[in-house]
Amino acid sequence: MQGRAAERDRIDRMLADARDGASSVLLIHGDAGIGKTALLDYAAARASGTRVLRIDGLESETELAFAGLHQLFLPSMDLVDQLPGPQARALRAVFGLTDDTVRDRFVIGLAVLSMLSEAAGEGTLLCLVDDVQWLDRASVDALAFAARRLQVEGVVLIFAARDAAGVAGLGGLPALRLAGLDPEAAAALVADLSPYVRQRIMDEAQGNPLALRELSAALTATQRAGQLSPLTLSAPSNRVQDAFLDQIRRLPEATRTLLLTAAADDTGTLDVILRAAEATVGDLAPAERAGLIVLTGDALRFRHPLIRYAAYQGSPFADRIAAHRALAAVLVAPEHAHRRAWQLAAAATGPDERVADELERVAIWAGGRQALASASAAYERAAQLTAEPEGRARRFIAAAQAAADAGQDERGGRLAAMVEVAPQDAGLAADLARVRAVVELGYGSPDVAGRMLLDCADQIAARRPDKLPALLVDALHAAFSSGNAELIEAVADRAPTEPVLAVPARLLTGDVPGALRALRPLVTARGRTDTGFMGRLMTGIYCHLSADDEAAYEIAAEAVEHCRDNGMGGWLPTALHLLARVELTLGRLDAASGHAAEGLRLAEGYDLSHRAAHLRAVLAILAAVRGEEEQTGRLARDAMAYAQPRGVGRATADALWALGLLDLGLGRADVALQRFEAARAASGHRLFGVFLLPDLVEAAVRAGRPERAVEPARLLGDWAEATGRPALAALAHRCRALTRPDAEAEQHFAAAVRLHRDGSAIDRARTGLLHGEWLRRARRKLEARSHLRDALDTFAALGAEPWARRAGAELRASGEVAEPSLGGPLSRLSPQEREVVRLAAAGATNREIATQLFLSPRTVGHHLYRAFPKLGVTSRTDLASVLSS
């Protein structure tokens, strides 16, 4: 471990922190041979009294779903019985112990988190994952999910990879890049060489420890003494690989065949390798003496991945094909069906329907266990081995769909492009259009995605009318995201009798009574139509737009539960976004924050960038209400960075709304007015901008530009009258009070206060603040105080600090001096502590909370332990009363 003092110290600190209960994660990355494995060995050696789990990624197992997890947890399978039922069933399914399917891949990630926590027990656990770049994607995703949620389990999780950027799923984890050794440390490794040769080897190795050792070991005695001819400069890994290849070529033929078979194998089982190579254990002795392999019990492993690579790539192509065929011939047991399929695929040199069928079965199995990246790879290889055009197209479409579902949008787009001719089957054409649209929506333009779906609907309408409603509702969802009213109307025109499509057409043309009539049966059915889950979400959106937020809340909450109960993890962020938006409108700010934060975590986990932008914008609005200037700016900027270039109008509008709301709360009315007007323009159709009209009107009046408030106030009034909703009517009266002469203002304030009685607390408080300000300016200070005091108490309870400060200043100006502390007990909690407390108060157990928030039970207990003294309680039974107060 020459020259690695700082790295060793970091590992020592991680292990020490684990003994105090803290968990930590580290991704070590650098070139082949740079010393990553040596650092993992160091960590294992220093982990005295600590349980150690360790795996090595194998290039030959990259496409085998959950091979890495199976290897990692094989010594600890007894712990599976201690997991919550759904998690235990998921792990047994992905390990092939049952035929169950897994509907939500996050259950697998949560099971891994629980397994790590259980493995640590009351002590500590060191988990080492080497060569992550070759681990199967399903295992990487599950381990990354757990890594991001480790907190106080006493777990140290260290990954090692060649290239951090090349390991999908590990982005954002604490990382340590290993550089080459400094000259002093490098010289110490080859101190026995003559000065000239030592310098030549150091120049060639560029500080790579493995290169220093192997190039030095490959020298003859004469060369070590100084007689060294000029070397061809190349990358250290290439030079080391060449040195390994020279060693392999000097071995007997039977040993070389064994090494090639072992390199092509993905089991690491000595019996399988020997039978496939038709060899004996004695044939391995020369390779073992040369230090190329390590034999442990019935397992064979290469001392370094570069040795495996040299053994495989250094062999003739025909020999590699023969090795794969030989391995397939011995992997006949049912538990090896997937390995056999991939060995046959590696041996195939042209179309082979029999092998393609076997791979498709592998893909179906992997997809049923949410190993979507592995399923996509199997479908793709099956397509490549399929000669018949329609079957080839079907398999490429399935590969693209699995990739898109896995969050690999770019790969999904590439696979969809592999469909060379338009499928003749209309259903297949519809599936292809939906995949391409999903990919486009994932990282491109919702407007383009909607038009793609619309075009496909036109093409298949006559041949597959059964596919039409779902296509059109997907197109409608994309159009709503962009805010493109023209596209919405075009979609609705395609099926005017379809209930889910009839509502927006009427809403956007101003036929609100007709829209409400069309919406009524959808609300009664809670959005359950033949347009599937998207139809349910759209019904909730319609209710929200028409200000029927109680119905919208019930539909959104049911949609969230439906996703949880049915393992629809990919849809859950969308449902949580709708629920958070509705809760925001209803003034349920803590609940909205919790649901939006959960949705964002899930969206990031699924790489759903489009949905993440919407959720960041909602969180920005909530942060603006609380006056968190830095947080609001960061969330809004991140949302707009994605949304603006892609025409995601609704997310852009919400982000601008958040910035304007922050400015308004902090007294920057002129800037706020500009933000609100920009948000209104970005939202597309005027209907989508209705939520920010009250803020726009207030900003215009406070900025001394009342003429810019007239049209928004009128539009809000018309919309309130058309819908007949009290909440909208209250806001419309507030706006009239601000824009009408003083002689009329009071009656509008009074009407607003009356209509607010059962509505949003924060809207009621903001109306009270404005009314109190108006009364104080009219020198009616005593009347003003009651409105201002109520507003201050509400703002303080909600943690709306800018508004509370303004209410407090107005109250002092009226002669009142008493001010409550801001936020109450809940304001002392971190966001995650608030979420945990909210669920605990509702009666959820630690395990139930852990499952819902994707934490370990130990972390939940830690948050409650920290929250109790902050809230002044000593037991869970006291939490409900604290929250209700």
Automatic annotation (TrEMBL):
Top-level taxonomic group: Bacteria
CC per GO annotation: cytoplasm
Task: Please name the GO terms of the biological process aspect recorded for this protein, alphabetically.
Answer: regulation of DNA-templated transcription
Q: Which InterPro entries match?
A: AAA_16, P-loop_NTPase, Sig_transdc_resp-reg_C-effctor, TPR-like_helical_dom_sf, Tscrpt_reg_LuxR_C, WH-like_DNA-bd_sf
Q: Which UniProt keywords apply?
A: ATP-binding, Nucleotide-binding
What is an example of a Pfam family matching this protein?
AAA_16
Which GO terms fall under molecular function for this chain's record?
adenylate cyclase activity; ATP binding; DNA binding
Cross-referenced SUPFAM superfamilies, in alphabetical order? C-terminal effector domain of the bipartite response regulators, P-loop containing nucleoside triphosphate hydrolases
Q: What region holds the HTH luxR-type domain?
A: 822-885
User: PANTHER family from the xrefs?
Assistant: TESTICULAR SOLUBLE ADENYLYL CYCLASE, TRANSCRIPTIONAL ACTIVATOR DOMAIN
Protein name as annotated? Regulatory protein, luxR family
Q: Which organism is it from?
A: Micromonospora cremea
